[in-house]
Amino acid sequence: MGLHERRQREKENIRTSILNAAFSLAKTEGWASLSMRKIADAIEYSAPVVYDHFENKEAILYEISLNGFHCLHIELLKAQRAHDNPEDQLKAIVDAYWKFAFKNKEYYQLMFGLGMQCSGKGMMKEEFSSFQDMLYDCTYEIIKKNGSKTENACHMSHALFSAVHGLISIMMMRNDDIPSTMNKTTLDETVSAFIKSL
């Protein structure tokens, strides 16, 4: 291995260490308390080394959120591909989204800015809107199958996204006084009522 390759590998290792340390700190202390100094201390480098790899804390948060959206996208695709008809796909996609949110709470909070300022540079990738896109596709197919007006698919799917995201947000911000079973039941009933309304 040449000197250039060795330096490149070392640079990638430090970058990975920074991202891993930031995520680990967020799990124990929360995203809002994260700082470049804490990350530097965690990887046992000086703060300038961290700044050599990332412009600021927001750039680190953006990279981590990208990974979160990628992981979510994979879970949604698995759920979608496990079913053939749009009704079952819709239920499975919503269920996968719900499970991802609570299995990966730190990712979800960062990805959607819950309890903190929204992060990101305004750069969009396909995975950012995969949940909304899949909801729209299923909604469109169900409406089409039922012989209703397909031009309503966008509005209807956005309403469902808002309801699902709202339930998750409420539960994450007030999880002490709301039973998780009640919220999941509400979610399932909402999806079933939504399908019947199309």
Concise synopsis of the structure shown:
The chain is 75% helix and 0% strand.
What does this structure look like?
There is one protein chain. The chain is mainly alpha-helical and 198 residues long. The chain has two domains: 1-54, Arc Repressor Mutant, subunit A (Orthogonal Bundle); 63-197, Tetracycline Repressor, domain 2, CATH 1.10.357.10. It contains nine helices and no strands. It has helices at residues 3-29, 36-43, 47-53, 57-81, 86-103, 105-112, 130-146, 153-173, 180-197. α1 crosses α2, α2 (36-43) packs across α3 and α4 crosses α6 (105-112). The N and C termini lie far apart (61 Å). Mean pLDDT is 88; it is low at 115-122.
User: What gap, in angstroms, lies between the N and C termini?
Assistant: 61 Å
Q: Can you tell me the CATH superfamily of the largest domain? A: Tetracycline Repressor, domain 2
pLDDT < 50 stretches:
115-122
CATH fold-level label of the largest domain = Tetracycline Repressor, domain 2
Specify the overall morphology. Answer: elongated
Q: How many distinct helices? A: 9
H/E topology pattern: HHHHHHHHH
Major β-sheet profile:
none
What structural class results from the helix and strand content? mainly alpha
Radius of gyration: 20 Å
How many E-type strands?
A: 0
Helical content, roughly?
over 70%
Mean pLDDT: 88
Can you tell me the CATH class of the largest domain? Mainly Alpha
InterPro entries: Homeodomain-like_sf, HTH-type_Tx_Regulator, HTH_TetR, MT1864/Rv1816-like_C, Tet_transcr_reg_TetR-rel_C_sf
Organism: Chryseobacterium cheonjiense
GO molecular function: DNA binding
Keywords: DNA-binding, Transcription, Transcription regulation
